[in-house]
Amino acid sequence: MKRYFTFLTTCLLALSALAQTQFTSGKFKYEVIEGTNWVQIIPKSNSDNGAGYSNLVSADFQTSVTYGGVTYDVVGIGANAFYKCKLNEQAILQLPEGYLFIDAGAFSYTEMGSLKLPTTMEMIHPRAFDNNKLAGVTVLAGNPYFAHLASTQGTVTYTMLTNKEKTKIIFAPGAKPTQFSAGGTTYLTSITIPEQITEIGDYAFYGNPTLKTVNFHAGITRIGMGAFYETLLTRVSIPNPDCEIGNSCFSNSQVSSISLPQGMKKLGRHVFFYCVNLTSLTLPEGMEEIGLMCFSSCNLSTVNLPSTMVKLDSCSLQDNPFSSINLKNVKFVGRQAFSQCLNLTSVTSNGMLEEIDGAAFTRCPLTTAYLPEGLLTINMNAYFRCADMTSFTVPTTVTTITGNPCVGATSLRAFNVAEGSEYFATYDGCLYATGGFTVKGGPNRDGDDASAGLTALVGVPTGWQQSLLHVPEGVTVIANQAAREVTSITEVELPSTLVEIRPSAFSSITGITKVTCLATTPPTSGEYFTNEVYQNATLYVPMNSVELYRAAAGWCNFQNIVGIDTGDEPVMRGDVDGNTLVDINDVTLLIDVTLGMDVEFEAEGADCESETGDGVIDINDVTALIQFVLSGTW
């Protein structure tokens, strides 16, 4: 007696079957399901033009086949088995008893008549019938999982696959009616969902090639994931505010008009993604959240948000042509929410905004960053590559900035901080935290004590015009991407208090020729300078810390590391004449000193101390200096 799969076993075996044995028998190619004496029908061809089958009739479907002396039970239709096949448009194909599953893509893009399922059918993958042109599906009475529902649309009656209770559409046939005529076929362009249906399943109408209109009734409680993906649907009107709309439900469709009921609270991920005919959007009062990429890559020229909206999730409105947006009472603008909105020049709100996530306004042509009082958090790259931006003022309420907020804003020359801020300040046009990223500090400083209290370099404006970046004493952290792409910088001075340099702090800068770091312990660092800098720049560090830097991650990549005296005026070890070079002239002078000749050292930075550190200038120092000149190491 045939052993039938349970639903779970069917799913697992169908999705994880390995091609241990494949063979052809009759009209079909089969694959043995590993560890069993069961086989599934698989594509005869792996071509994108189709799986290689045509002109099938019900009698072609066998319940068992024999190969190599072993008899196998045929239990299902494997993945993509009839992909892009024209099986038999005038036939009703009946799968025999014993068939248990139909896997993903099995009838995708398939043209055929009707399909009749046996009582043994247990599992049908949600994507089994994508983009099909089937006339209908019927199920033999007695199947414990599936049924079919006849529905008359205009003058055409056709059948759709449902759950046993006939309350959920699992699959709606793609195009052709059950009545076949010699003169051609009638394609389904409009459907009114039957009253007894409360749920439209995942991918139920996915890729339907002719459907333009769907009428939903108020009893619909769920429209599943991808249910109308890539259809010709032009209008969406949903009457039930409690209806759940699945991810990607109407993505890539021809929708140009949306009507949603008041009280609907949320739209999920990708719901109207890439609906390029959608030019205007007005969302109802009561809606609170727009999900990830929900209206991304549409063609919206106007967007009207309700006063109840509090969250715009990542990429929710990205890549649209609208020029202005009123956020009203929105509290959170997600990552890349307005990225690539290349006409967006005006942002307003009611002052409820609390957080702007990373890359939220990427490449928007804003000249002034929208940063209202009440804002608490600005995340790294919130205004990434906003090339037209000339003004960026941090409000007093901001307590957290996670990294440089506007890398690539090439027109921005200096950051500003509103008078009275307790958390951030500017120094030399750069943005600093005044007690870490969330600890109290002081306002803008321009006087003699301008660097007092600064603890973290948050950002250097990309359009900065200076060549020397001097980070003052007291600063312990260089934030993520703090000086990324600031190409004017050729020299960097880092304080003795520095503890950490975070990722990409100096990335994309190739012209740095000199880096001075006065910290005796190498700050935690990865490879945050460019390869050109590591190869060509000289790193100056405390004389007694040279070997530590040569062994430290990131720092060890510098090809030229030189020790200096960290007094008031930096002294380069071995630079006897004080000209910032260590060469044969220094060897000559040191020999003169060793021989007791009268040598004057008038140049600032001259190193006339013992090179070996024993306090006595002698032949050992001359030897050490010669070694350095020849090898570059002490």
Q: What would your notes on this structure say?
A:
This protein is mainly beta and 634 residues long. Helix content is 7%, strand content 24%. The chain is built from 5 helices and 44 strands. The strands form 11 sheets. Strands 1, 2, 3, 4, 5, 7 and 9 form a 7-stranded mixed sheet that branches. It has a 7-stranded parallel sheet with strand order 21-23-25-27-29-30-32, with no helix packed on it. Strand 1 (22-25) and strand 2 form a beta hairpin. Helix 4 (584-594) packs antiparallel against helix 5 (619-631). The radius of gyration is 36 Å and the shape is elongated. Residues 1-5, 7-12, 14-19, 177-183 and 436-450 have low confidence and may be disordered.
Strand and helix map with partners:
Layout (H helix, E strand, L loop, with lengths): L6 H10 L5 E4 L2 E5 L5 E5 L21 E4 L2 E8 L14 E3 L6 E2 L11 E4 L5 E2 L11 E4 L6 E8 L2 E8 L4 E4 L18 E3 L6 E2 L12 E3 L6 E2 L11 E3 L6 E2 L11 E3 L6 E2 L12 E3 L6 E2 L11 E3 L6 E2 L11 E3 L5 E2 L12 E3 L6 E2 L20 E2 L14 E2 L5 E2 L14 E2 L6 E4 L2 E4 L22 E4 L8 E3 L6 E2 L12 E4 L5 E2 L12 E4 L13 H6 L1 E5 L3 H6 L8 E6 L5 E2 L11 H11 L24 H13 L3
Parallel strand pairs: 3-5, 5-7, 6-8, 7-9, 8-10, 13-15, 14-16, 15-17, 17-19, 18-20, 21-23, 22-24, 23-25, 25-27, 26-28, 27-29, 29-30, 30-32, 31-33, 36-38, 37-39, 38-40, 39-41, 41-42, 42-43
Antiparallel strand pairs: 1-2, 2-3, 4-5, 11-12, 12-13, 34-35, 35-36, 43-44
